[in-house]
Specification:
Blueprint: H1 2-18, H2 25-28, H3 36-46, H4 59-75, E1 88-92, E2 98-106, E3 117-123, E4 128-129, E5 145-146, H5 149-168, E6 174-180, H6 188-195, E7 204-210, E8 220-224, H7 232-239, E9 245-248, H8 262-266, E10 274-277, H9 285-288, H10 303-322, H11 336-343
Parallel strand pairs: 3-6, 3-7, 7-10, 8-9
Antiparallel strand pairs: 1-2, 2-6, 4-5, 8-10
Bound molecules: zinc ion.
Length: about 350
C-alpha cells in the first residue's frame, strides 16, 4: 500500500515536472482554448441561407442582431447604460427603415485603468439577396443569396468570441463590444454610434475593428493601419502565439483604412486599425472570388485559420487592454490632430 502511494506521488511529481509550462499568458487565457467548433456554429448560423444575407433593415438582420445580443448576454457581458434593452441602439436608415447596432461591455479589473475602454467593432450586416445574374448554363438556378461568411461573418464571430473570452477573464481596461449594422449602406451604423456614443469617446483609447473581404494567405493577418499607431509591437505579440504574422495594408491606394467602420472612430481621434484575414492584394483569388459574391459561403472556409485568426484578434485586444500605456497615433498621422482635440493636447 505504502509502495503504491509512494509510486503515485513519484509519478505525479515526474508528470508535473515534465508537463510543458502552462503558465505563459498565451496558454492561460480563454482565447488560447477557444473552441473552433463553437466558432463554426456561430458562422454557419449567421451565414446560413435562412439569414438571407443579413441586409440592414430586413427581418433577417434583426435575427442576426438578436443572436449576437444573446451571445453577449449568455457569456456574461453586461449591457451598456442608455442602450435599449441593455444591448441595442436603433439606427435610422435612408429608406425610412431602421436597423440596430448591438453593444455590450466588460468592466476592467484595474481600479484606474477600467475607466478606459478598448472598443472592438465589426459590422454584422451584409448585402442581402439579389436577383441571379442570368442563365448560369446549368439546371441548378444561380445562387441569389449573398451569405457574407467572410464579409463580415468572420468579423462578427470574432467579436462574439471576444465577448466570451473577456467575460471569462477580464483585462485591466474595460472592453466595449460593438457589432454595427448598415456598413454596406455606407458605414451608416458606425457613423450613427460615433455621433451618438453611449460611452464618451475620450474614454475609448483604442478601436480594433475587424472586417473581411476574403483571404488568400493563412500565415498572415493584414492589419490595415499597421504602422500608423504605436501598438505595432503589441499586435505582433498578440498574433505570434497563433502562428500568424501581421502585415500592413498591401494596397494603400485602395483607401481601405477609410472604407470600413474604423474610420468613423479615427475621425473622432481614436486610434483605429482594422484586422483582416491575410491577403497580399485585393486581386488575390481568395478575395476577388468571394468579395460581395454569392460564393462567400460558410461551407468553403478554412476553419483552422478562422480559429487562429480569431484567437489572434482577441489576444491582441487583450494585450492592448493590459498595456501600461494606451497606444497613440504615430506623429504626423492625418488623425493625430483629432486625437489631440479628443484626449487633450499634452497627454498621450
Ligand atoms: Zn465588410
Amino acid at each position: 500500500m505504502k509502495l503504491i502511494q509512494l509510486t503515485a506521488i513519484l509519478f505525479l511529481f515526474v508528470f508535473t515536472a515534465c508537463t510543458p509550462d502552462s503558465s505563459t499568458m498565451e496558454d492561460s487565457t480563454p482565447e488560447a482554448r477557444l473552441s473552433g467548433t463553437e466558432l463554426e456554429k456561430d458562422l454557419r448560423f449567421l451565414a446560413s441561407d435562412e439569414l438571407r444575407g443579413r441586409r440592414a433593415g430586413m427581418p433577417s438582420a434583426e435575427v442576426a442582431a438578436r443572436y449576437i445580443a444573446e451571445q453577449f448576454r449568455s457569456a456574461g457581458v453586461t449591457g451598456v447604460p442608455g442602450a435599449e434593452d441593455g444591448y441595442f441602439q436603433t439606427v435610422p436608415l435612408n429608406n425610412g427603415k431602421t436597423s440596430r447596432n448591438v453593444i455590450g461591455m466588460i468592466e476592467g479589473t484595474d481600479p484606474e485603468l477600467k475607466d478606459e475602454y478598448i472598443l472592438l467593432t465589426a459590422h454584422y450586416d451584409h448585402v442581402g439577396v439579389r436577383s441571379p445574374r442570368g442563365d448560369n448554363g446549368s439546371d441548378t438556378p444561380a445562387d441569389s443569396i449573398y451569405n457574407g461568411a467572410r464579409d463580415n461573418g468572420m468579423g462578427t464571430i470574432a467579436v462574439i468570441a471576444a465577448a466570451r473570452a473577456f467575460a471569462k477573464k477580464a483585462p485591466k481596461r474595460s472592453i466595449l463590444l460593438l457589432a454595427v449594422t448598415a456598413e454596406e449602406m455606407g458605414l451608416v451604423g458606425s457613423r450613427y454610434y460615433a455621433e451618438n456614443p453611449l460611452i464618451p469617446h475620450n474614454q475609448v483609447v483604442y478601436n480594433l475593428n475587424v472586417d473581411t473581404g476574403g483571404y488568400s494567405d493563412t500565415s498572415i493577418v493584414t492589419v490595415v493601419g499597421l504602422g500608423r499607431t504605436s501598438a505595432d509591437s503589441l499586435i505582433i505579440q498578440g498574433t505570434k502565439p497563433f502562428g500568424i504574422e501581421p502585415i500592413a495594408d498591401p494596397s494603400p491606394g485602395e483607401g481601405l483604412f477609410d472604407r470600413s467602420d474604423n474610420v468613423n472612430f479615427a475621425r473622432q481621434g481614436i486610434p483605429a486599425p482594422t484586422f483582416s484575414p491575410g491577403f497580399r492584394a485585393f486581386s488575390d483569388p481568395g478575395v476577388a472570388n468571394y468579395y460581395h459574391q454569392p460564393a462567400d459561403e460558410a461551407d468553403d472556409m478554412d476553419y483552422d485559420y478562422l480559429t487562429r485568426f480569431t484567437q489572434a484578434y482577441v489576444h491582441t485586444a487583450r494585450i492592448i487592454a493590459n498595456a501600461d500605456e494606451a497606444p497613440h497615433w504615430m506623429p504626423g498621422d492625418k488623425y493625430e490632430e483629432a486625437a489631440k482635440q479628443l484626449y487633450g493636447g499634452g497627454s498621450e
